[in-house]
Specification:
Number of strands of chain A: 14
Largest interface: A-B, 65 and 75 residues
Shape of chain B: globular
Helix content of chain A: 10-25%
Number of strands of chain B: 13
Radius of gyration of chain A: 17 Å
Shape of chain A: globular
Strand content of chain A: 15-25%
Helix content of chain B: 25-40%
Structural class of chain B: alpha/beta
Order of helices and strands of chain A: HEHEEEHHEEEEEHEHEEEHEH
Distance between the termini of chain A: 15 Å
Largest sheet of chain A: 8 strands, mixed
Strand content of chain B: 15-25%
Oligomer: heterodimer
Number of helices of chain A: 8
Chain lengths: 247, 325
């Protein structure tokens, strides 16, 4: 997953990332395919050294060797500002996703009496509102890929091609969803999710069986497996303690 | 505004004087960094109740205040402690059992709400949240808002750009100012009059402090005024914004304080285990918070070798190679 996401990051992009696997992907991209990408965090740290993997975006490890220790106000303004915002790719995760890439990270069930309460937006809604491109990490499960969200925390393409424009949102929208089974993208015209890539040995049926809505599978290609070099960078340089990769 | 030249006082006096039951409180820091934990534990010891709490992305401080039953209402963007607790455990339980009413905003919206309070304007416009449930769904009902003079009538408002399409913008979201009764920060250094120097990321501490009617600053070290005036560019708050200065070594523990100590992975993992069970959590509160007279005693309960492990390295500002699994 981390390697698949790292490959999505283009050189010289400004990468906004959150806690966990998105940091790992951004750190890997910088060491593999996008050496001139710039990582920044909502906490205001820009282009830190990241000698060790942070456990949160507020970790002191995001502060070492940074170009700037800005504030939250600075960090979000870089994305809201159309000059710098256009260059930013955001990496996001959530508890639920719908066919248009909208995300729920707030609550499952009734908002006022939730069955499960999650952390809430944090900066996710801001990122999804502002940036020109976002990459979403999801665990591939039926309860997570739902036709309708219980709560719309972070905007994707909203209800289709004109959704964002009608709502008055700037920026672009989600470009890809990376899961433990597949890579999904959004149709240029309808903005609905479709299956773009499968990992070697994963059948499209398995992917569909783990989703709560149908997606077009006719365009799916096989995603090349991570190379030995990519894996080595991930395991030895980015996360030697296996804090995110696990054992 | 307080021009006294010596605002140092004990933590119990500062909490006793400035934090009342039901008051509107904001706490600084971010998830697992520079949370004003010593002050949080003191509020728990003094059994504050009915607090209306504001934060942007906060973890440990918010979770412990909620867990101890101090908080009635919460306005927040994110309740999590990074990988140690992606959703704060007592926060989650309190919302799921209906013990806590929450109003959800985004981090930028909360930051701009504090900024509006700091600037003395009733609201500020942002471009985030259009088309989402953060705009459409309210945690605090209209009735509750109208009947409480300390709450704005609206959660937020969507407005057409009054300047036409100037700046390429059709619509903005207006977020209401926050002016907390008190903001509590933990910082590295301050002088006796209250001038504050934060090392590393300030998060939204500066806006949170300037927005508040009263400010309590806990700090690792009190320094002479002349020392902070040698490099004013490194200071974040002038003395007149601050009402109480409380020296508390390791006052952010178990969260981190850049260049002083790291977060404590042992404590945070244990905390999660305690928090996941009501009985265990009450035992923890009795043993470590109600059962200790102050933060120094709370710290004495931690294993000295664990505290030694989190001491910050001089070059990096954190504990290099700390076992965080």
């Amino acid at each position: 997953m981390a390697v698949a996401a790292a490959r999505e990051i283009q050189d010289e992009e400004i990468v906004f990332c959150g806690t966990g696997i998105s940091m790992l992907a951004a750190m890997a991209a910088k060491r593999i395919s996008a050496p001139n990408s710039v990582i920044f965090f909502e906490t205001g740290a820009v282009d830190a050294l990241l000698e060790e993997i942070p456990m949160a975006v507020g970790d002191s490890r995001v502060m070492l060797g940074a170009a700037l220790h800005g504030s939250l106000a600075d960090a979000f303004a870089f994305m809201q500002n159309r000059t710098t915002g256009r260059r930013v790719v955001g990496i996001l995760g959530a508890a639920q996703i719908d066919p248009y890439g909208n995300l729920n990270s707030t609550a499952i069930g009734d908002y006022h009496h939730p069955k499960v309460r999650f952390s809430g937006s944090g900066g996710a809604c801001d990122v999804g509102s502002f940036v020109s491109r976002s990459i979403i990490f999801m665990q591939h499960a039926r309860r997570k890929f739902v036709p309708r969200l219980d709560y719309l925390t972070c905007p994707g393409w909203l209800d289709g091609p004109d959704g964002r424009q009608k709502a008055g949102l700037p920026g672009g929208g989600p470009a890809a969803v990376i899961t433990d089974l597949a890579v999904l993208r959004f149709d240029e015209e309808t903005r609905r999710m479709y299956l773009a890539g499968t990992y070697p040995g994963v059948a499209p049926e398995k992917i569909l069986n783990n989703m709560g809505f149908e997606v077009d599978v006719s365009r799916a290609e096989t995603v090349p497996p991570p190379s030995a070099e990519e894996l080595a960078i991930l395991r030895e340089q980015c996360d030697p303690q296996r804090l995110i990769l696990g054992d | 505004m307080n021009l006294s030249t010596n605002k140092t006082m004990s933590l119990d006096m500062a909490i006793n004087r400035f934090v009342n039951d039901g008051c509107h409180l904001s706490v600084g820091g971010f998830t697992i960094n520079r949370n004003p934990m010593a002050a949080v534990y003191e509020m728990i010891r003094q059994r504050r109740r009915g607090l209306h709490l504001y934060a942007h992305s906060n973890g440990q401080a918010v979770d412990e205040l909620i867990g101890a039953g101090c908080v009635a209402r919460l306005e927040i963007a994110y309740g999590g402690s990074g990988l140690f607790a992606p959703t704060c455990v007592r926060f989650r339980r309190a919302v799921e059992t209906g013990m806590l009413v929450v109003e959800d905003y985004t981090n930028y919206q909360m930051t701009m709400r504090f900024a509006a309070g700091a600037m003395g304007v009733p609201f500020l416009p942002v471009r985030s949240g259009l088309g989402t449930d953060i705009v459409n769904r309210w945690g605090f009902g209209e009735q509750m808002r109208r009947s409480d003079p300390k709450l704005p009538d609206q959660k937020l408002m969507v407005m057409d750009n009054p300047f036409g399409r100037w700046s390429g913008t059709d619509k903005v979201v207006l977020v209401p100012a926050i002016t907390p009764d008190v903001t509590i920060l933990h910082v590295q250094t301050a002088d006796r009059a209250g001038t504050v120097s934060i090392q590393g990321l300030p998060f939204a501490d500066v806006e949170q402090a300037k927005a508040a009617m009263c400010v309590i600053v806990t700090c690792e070290t009190i320094v002479e005024e002349s020392a902070l005036r040698e490099n004013p560019g490194a200071n974040q708050l002038p003395f007149f914004c601050v009402d109480a200065v409380v020296p508390v070594p390791m006052g952010a523990y178990p969260t981190a304080c850049y260049h002083y100590y790291d977060y404590d992975p042992v404590f945070l993992k244990n905390y999660r285990h305690w928090a996941e069970h009501d009985g265990r959590y009450q035992d923890y509160l009795q043993r470590s918070v109600y059962g200790t007279k102050d933060h120094a005693e709370f710290l004495k309960q931690q294993a000295p070798e664990d505290l030694a492990k989190i001491k910050a390295d001089r070059r990096t500002g954190y504990a290099v190679g700390l076992d965080r699994r």
